[in-house]
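From the methods appendix. Each design record in this collection lists the tokenized structure first, followed by the designed amino acid sequence. Records were kept in a plain field format so they could be parsed without special tools. The example shown here is representative of the layout used throughout.

RECORD:
FOLD TOKENS (366 positions):
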């Protein structure tokens, strides 16, 4: 195992959020070297997720921060306790978990007791921050990948093949994992089932592709962006509904008389959230991906789930998605538009306007 250099700090370039609403500013910072259980990753590419955009709008933690949580890159240095990767390995970064609480020990890291603190706390659990010397907070989702380098741990890195482009692999760590994992893991969609996906952005389209792989017979995509709806059809949706122009409830009722088996709600729109449970058949299940859990009481045995990260264990699930991609069954690369790192604000604006489905920033070279 390569020893960690004694160089005190790593110089990095990062997109820093200094006020609510942005813009993100490219700045030179310094980052601590990895501690014994940490990994320094040189970022090659990173996706932009709507969680990043939401944090920009809310102003993050009220202090200057580095966002980004769909990183992919090359391991540069490792701490002395790290065993699963070594310098030179290619990795995809995902969400952080502690590995010590009861849910983590049971193999459910998405339910980690410390999930919020580790992913949204902008610091390590001990309160320290690897970007403190620059007066900026990092560790967003245990990474802060809107930077040329970031710190991660074995809990949120996944070793990946070196012969696949990192600009393709980057979105697997959150958006693709959440959408596909909701279908495969949280809902366990069965062959011949019916499902409605509300919101066909990157997460919703991942759910559509997964539903097709699972053998769902009826797959309905609902959105307001015609480009997304057309792509949903190409990727597996049997029906699409433009919610600006159609009565969504009436259309779903016509498509699936008696209701559908499953719904995936990723828009956060109150009307569609209610419809996600109303259109279920008795015994059907809704998955809510925006932090909501749906109505408290549903008639007829219907169920509502609040899903985090598709209930996926990244080290097992991301290789599964890569295998499906290589088999031509999960062509998530069709969602991606690449941007130079210094065009990050344009990439964010294009994502907000629906021009781009999944923007990926090219930060460096593999």
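DESIGN:
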């Amino acid at each position: 195992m390569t020893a960690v250099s004694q160089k005190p700090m790593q110089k990095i370039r990062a997109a820093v959020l200094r006020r609510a609403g942005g813009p993100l500013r490219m700045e030179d910072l310094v980052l601590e070297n990895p501690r014994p259980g940490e990994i320094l990753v040189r970022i090659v590419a990173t996706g932009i997720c709507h969680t990043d955009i939401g944090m920009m709008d809310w102003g993050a933690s009220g202090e200057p921060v580095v966002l980004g949580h769909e990183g992919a890159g090359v391991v540069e240095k490792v701490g002395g306790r790290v065993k699963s990767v070594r310098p030179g390995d290619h990795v995809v970064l995902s969400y952080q978990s502690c590995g010590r609480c009861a849910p983590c020990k049971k193999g459910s890291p998405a339910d980690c007791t410390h999930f919020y603190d580790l992913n949204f706390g902008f610091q390590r659990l001990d309160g320290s921050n690897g970007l403190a010397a620059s007066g900026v907070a990092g560790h967003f989702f245990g990474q802060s990948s809107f930077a040329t380098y970031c710190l991660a741990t074995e809990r949120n890195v996944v070793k990946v093949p070196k012969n696949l482009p990192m600009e393709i692999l980057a979105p697997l760590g959150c958006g693709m994992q959440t959408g596909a994992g909701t279908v495969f893991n949280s809902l366990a969609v069965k062959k011949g089932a019916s499902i409605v996906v509300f919101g066909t952005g990157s997460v919703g389209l991942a759910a559509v592709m997964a539903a097709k792989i699972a053998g769902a017979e009826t797959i309905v995509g609902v959105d307001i962006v015609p480009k997304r709806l057309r792509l949903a059809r190409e990727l597996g949706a049997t029906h699409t509904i433009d919610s600006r122009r159609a009565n969504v409830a009436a259309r779903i009722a016509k498509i699936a008389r008696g209701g559908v088996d499953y719904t995936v709600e990723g828009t956060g729109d109150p009307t569609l959230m209610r419809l996600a449970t109303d259109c279920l058949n008795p015994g059907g299940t809704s998955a809510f991906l925006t932090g909501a859990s749906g109505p408290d009481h549903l008639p007829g045995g219907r169920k509502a789930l609040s899903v985090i990260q598709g209930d996926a264990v990244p080290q097992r699930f991301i290789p599964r998605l890569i295998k499906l991609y290589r088999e031509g069954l999960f062509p998530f690369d069709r969602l991606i538009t690449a941007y130079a790192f210094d065009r990050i604000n344009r990439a964010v604006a294009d994502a907000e306007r629906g021009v781009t489905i999944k923007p990926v920033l090219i930060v460096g070279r593999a």
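APPENDIX NOTE: Residues 1-6 have pLDDT under 50 and may be disordered.
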